[in-house]
Amino acid sequence: MSKLLADLVVLLHFGFIAFVLVGGVLVLKWGWVAFLHLPCVMWGVLVEMTGWICPLTPLEQGLREAEGGAAYTGGFVDHYIVPIIYPEGLTRGMQIGFAIVVVAINLGVYGLVIAKRVKRRGGRV
Q: Most buried of 28, 93, 109, 115, CB within 10 angstroms?
């Protein structure tokens, strides 16, 4: 059961990262999503900029250990994301770069959200 729960935590973690990266697009359709998305973006950027480990990482590791499996060292991004994107380990510069990309993507999307709202309201924010 612990292995299944650990796998679900990984899926949740991936979903959270995807939501942070592109969830702003949902705001174009449903404005209320911004109330969920913006705090998630702030948390994701904070974790990357400070080098903190997301609380989901130790949760997953603890579940894997409870099942008798080996827990990995480092964070979720190191273990799951970096091997997909980069062949070598995560550096502080890469983490800061990830945070900048997240901010840039979301500034662009929210710029579109604001522009759409201004257009719909005839030039008023």
A: 109
Q: Retrieve residue 109's tokens.
A: 């999307």
What is 75-121 written as a DSSP string?
-HIIIIIHHHH-SS---HHHHHHHHHHHHHHHHHHHHHHHHHHHHHT
As given in the structure block, the two tokens for residue 5 are 């729960």
Calpha distance 16→10 (Å, rounded): 10
Residue pLDDT, tens place only, 61-111? 888 888 786 666 666 666 676 566 555 667 888 888 888 998 999 999 999
pTM, rounded to two decimals: 0.72
**Contact (Cβ atoms closer than 8 angstroms) between residue 98 and residue 45:** no
Q: How far apart are CA 104 and CA 54, in angstroms?
A: 21
Residue that the structure tokens 């273990």 belong to: 79
CA–CA dist 121, 26 (Å, integer): 20
Structure tokens at 9: 């935590």
Using alpha carbons, select from 21, 20, 49 the residue that is nearest to residue 36.
20
